[in-house]
Specification:
Blueprint: H1 3-11, E1 22-26, H2 31-42, E2 46-51, H3 54-67, E3 73-77, H4 85-91, E4 99-102, H5 118-146, E5 149-154, H6 167-186, E6 192-199, H7 206-210, H8 215-221, H9 230-241, E7 251-254, E8 259-261, E9 264-265
Helix pairs in contact: 2-9, 5-6
The protein binds NADP nicotinamide-adenine-dinucleotide phosphate.
NADP nicotinamide-adenine-dinucleotide phosphate binds at residues 26-33, 51-53, 56, 79-81, 103-106, 127, 154, 156, 199, 201-202, 204-206, 209, 230.
Length: 269
């Protein structure tokens, strides 16, 4: 092959446009989900936004409609752990979306297994595992029928490494990873992409939720570290989604430079 052709191939623009697609985002009321809503809107995507806090969703929807009046933005104030939620979304046609951002999730507590609270376990498992599996499965069914679609799931570095005092959160994210690896295999013929993103420390409401509203403990997590922000993660997801359809970014591990793994962090004094 000629050098000229090789150069031309290398320089060919690759990113595709998402304009006109519809994205269904769970956990859109804060953090990574909210940042993605804003970035996908900027890319020209219509949005279905899901979270429990209706006031936050309404405010987000108003702000985005002001910025991008041509977009269709629907809000669903729903708890993903409720049994009826997937049916409500299905009846509303929300699973007809081209893109699912399966993001709603949380950590509760930071304690040894023998000292941790069973209600924290069940909240993490019902949100990060049961609800996330159900939503991906429903979206995958609709996408398989249409032979197209992208499922993006918020995994974590905790899906790759288990850390002390975070057993159940780590177990939940390991489960998310295993489930979506299998889903990718099962949908190879369907034209669906299953993309995981595994962030390290992202400064969102995540730690505030983990420590039940204790601001001091939450702030200490990010002290002395230039953490990721939600927009950093959103940008990586956009990169994966904008790849040509023959490319699947299976799992993007993204961490602050100062974070070696979940428990080894270099902090500025
Ligand atoms: P966040 O700011 O706390 O956002 C979590 C979102 O999930 C909120 O919009 C919350 O909305 C929603 N949510 C939680 N439970 C829900 C439920 N039962 N029903 C509906 N929505 C629910 O945290 P984040 O950092 O953006 O986290 C997003 C995802 O990234 C999670 O899956 C998390 O595990 C993952 N992640 C985060 C980090 C990090 O360091 N921040 C690192 C790795 C992975 P409502 O409260 O309004 O319902």
């Amino acid at each position: 092959m000629s050098v000229e052709k090789l150069i031309n191939d290398a320089l060919r623009p690759r990113c595709t446009s998402l304009r006109g697609q519809t994205a269904l985002i769970t956990g859109a009321s804060s953090g990574i989900g909210l940042a993605l809503a804003a970035r996908l809107a900027q890319e020209g995507c219509h949005l279905h936004l899901i979270a429990r806090r209706q006031d936050r969703l309404s405010q987000l929807s108003i702000e985005l409609k002001n910025l991008f009046p041509e977009l269709n933005i629907r809000t669903f104030p729903l708890d993903v752990t409720r049994e009826e939620t997937a049916d409500v979304l299905e009846s509303a046609g929300a699973f007809e979306a081209d893109i699912l951002i399966n993001n709603a999730g949380l950590a509760k507590g930071l304690a040894k297994i023998i000292e941790s609270d069973a209600s924290d376990w069940s909240e993490m498992l019902s949100t990060n595992v049961n609800a996330a599996f159900t939503i991906s499965a429903r979206a995958a069914r609709a996408m398989s029928a249409r032979k197209s679609g992208d499922i993006v799931v918020l995994s974590s570095v905790a899906a790759h490494h288990s850390y002390e005092n975070g057993a159940v959160y780590c177990a939940s994210k390991h489960a998310v990873r295993a489930f979506h690896e299998a889903l990718r295999l099962e949908t190879l013929e369907s034209g669906i992409r299953v993309i995981m993103i595994s962030p390290g420390m992202v400064e969102t409401e995540f730690s505030l939720v983990r420590f039940s509203g204790d601001n001091q403990r939450a702030n200490a997590v990010y002290q002395g570290v230039e953490s990721l922000d939600a927009g950093d993660v959103a940008e990586s997801i956009l990169f994966a989604l904008r790849q040509p359809r023959h490319i699947n970014l299976d799992d993007i591990i993204i961490k602050p430079r100062q974070q070696g793994n979940p428990w080894r962090v270099f902090r500025n004094s």
